[in-house]
Amino acid sequence: MDSRSYRLGTGIEEDKDDSTVFYDVDNADVLELKSRLLAEALTNDAVITSELRSMIAKGNRRRKIVMCNIEDPGWNCKLREQGFDSSKPTCWVLEGLTYYLKNEATVASIFHTMHSMSCSGSCLIVSVTSKGSVERAQSSKSELMKSWRWGIDEPDTFLSSRKCGGWHCSPKDVVPLGDERANYGRFPPNRMGERSGILYVTARC
User: Fold this and answer.
1) At what angle do helices 50-62 and 28-42 cross, to 10 degrees?
2) Residue closest to 39 by CA, chosen among 51, 22, 57, 23
3) H helical segments located in the chain
């Protein structure tokens, strides 16, 4: 239910020469629910302000929906069908996703495909969790955390490997959740990532 395509879209000036596009890639049921909730919000004057209404309208103009399971082969073809242009720099964002993917081979394949679709100047931003955190999640009281499947202890080495496409990534590109280098006012400065095992990783093509 990420709203990044709406929040970031409002900061882009409406310009006929600007080709920035937000591709929202997710399972069909999630995207359908998001579209329904946004449509309902637009008609509810009791909960939506003119500013939010404008934000949703602008976001819709720059957002393209790609309904697919990213674990399935061919998701990249569906992305291209929606107009994705690999000759233009891309910022891939995978937040709160990788821990739910089924295994390392699947994760590596996704990163490899993204790298193959990226030109110079492209980057990848992804949140991952440690192997220990996945093990602890299995005994968690949270049903959501019990569904965690994959973790990695050295994400920079993993992303730099040939099986992931050879992204440029070093230890300094890996920071814990809540760290001042990857916070943007969203989390309290209490090094919560060190306890949760959630890490934010940046890599370049």
Assistant:
1) 140
2) 57
3) 4-7, 28-42, 50-62, 75-81, 104-116, 131-137, 143-146, 155-160, 192-196
pLDDT value for 99: 95
Per-residue pLDDT tens for 43-97? 888 878 888 888 777 777 888 999 999 999 899 999 999 999 999 999 999 999 9
**Closest by Cα among 154, 193, 152, 189 to 173:** 154
- Asked whether 99 and 129 are in contact (CB, 8 A), the reply is yes
CB atoms within 10 A of CB 41: 13
Which three-class secondary structure state does DSSP give residue 172?
helix
**CB 63, CB 9: distance < 8 Å:** yes
- C-beta separation of 104 from 128 below 8 A: no
Nearest to 200 by CA among 93, 89, 70, 112: 93
CB contact at 8 A, 58 and 13? no
- Give me Rg for the CA atoms of the chain: 18
Q: What pLDDT, on a 0 to 100 scale, did the predictor assign at position 189?
A: 58
Task: Indicate yes or no: pTM above 0.85.
Answer: yes
User: Which residue has 């006012």 as its token pair?
Assistant: 185
Q: Are 29 and 39 in contact (CB under 8 A)?
A: no
Are 39 and 79 spatial neighbours (Cβ–Cβ below 8 Å)? no
